[in-house]
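We give the entry.
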Amino acid sequence: MHIAVIGSGGIGGVLAAAAHDAGHEVTLCVRTPFDRLVVETPEGTGEVPAAVVTDPGAVGPVDWVLLTTKVQDVPSTAGWLRRLDDGRAPIAVVQNGVEHRESVAGMGLRGPVLPALVYVAAERVRPGHVVRRSPVTMQVEAGAVGERFARLISGGPLTVRTTEDFRTAAWRKMLTNVGPNPITALTLRRLDVLADPDVQELCAGVLAEAVEVARAEGAELTQADAKRVLADYIEKFPPTNGTSMLYDRLAGLPTEHEHITGALVRAAAAHDVPVPLNKTLLTLMRALRPTELPPV
């Protein structure tokens, strides 16, 4: 298969490597050109022989499109999607948050859209160099397209599972982002910040609010899920790991707070669920000095 990966951040680099390892031809569709993709993993460091392209006109027909940019960057991928979306190739939307279909709803896509979640500790340390610090687990919406994707790319350090209840899966993934992401981005610290008891208490409160919003949205979550997420971050993840929002802030890039904390606060307002801690974090994230990127 020929797979186009839009975006060369941590997730894009990891999935490009996984697609190559599964035996597929890979094209990376990027804003910033670089000569080669190097992925550093616990199993070793290697170069991924993917084509790196900055001009949509230089890409021919593909069998799959993996959209791996942050939600706020989706509009800038319009040129790539117009070129690659032939109505046949499925488009896997691999994003944080709960707005997978909404994020591409205005793009006029003709091909089938597959919402996808990814669990991985990955960081782009510079253009063309990605560090993966953990195995990769993905969840995709059940159905024919989801089953095809699982067969397409599973193997090695990557496991793909389908789920009949993607809403619950997306909100469970949201729990892993909505607490640590803004806290690390605001403090400019990695997960070691969660060793502070006061920060733990804050994070627990943020997650407790998130569960109530998720339940109002129809997700099958309980407060036990929030406690488990916080315990995992404290007990299982190395304190030197960061989060996507922290990495983006350190790189001077826009963060996706509007599509994580912001999405939660908007859903809370729709259901009249009080979320004072999340509203405070959103206010502080919005107050950070913004940065702008050129269009793709």
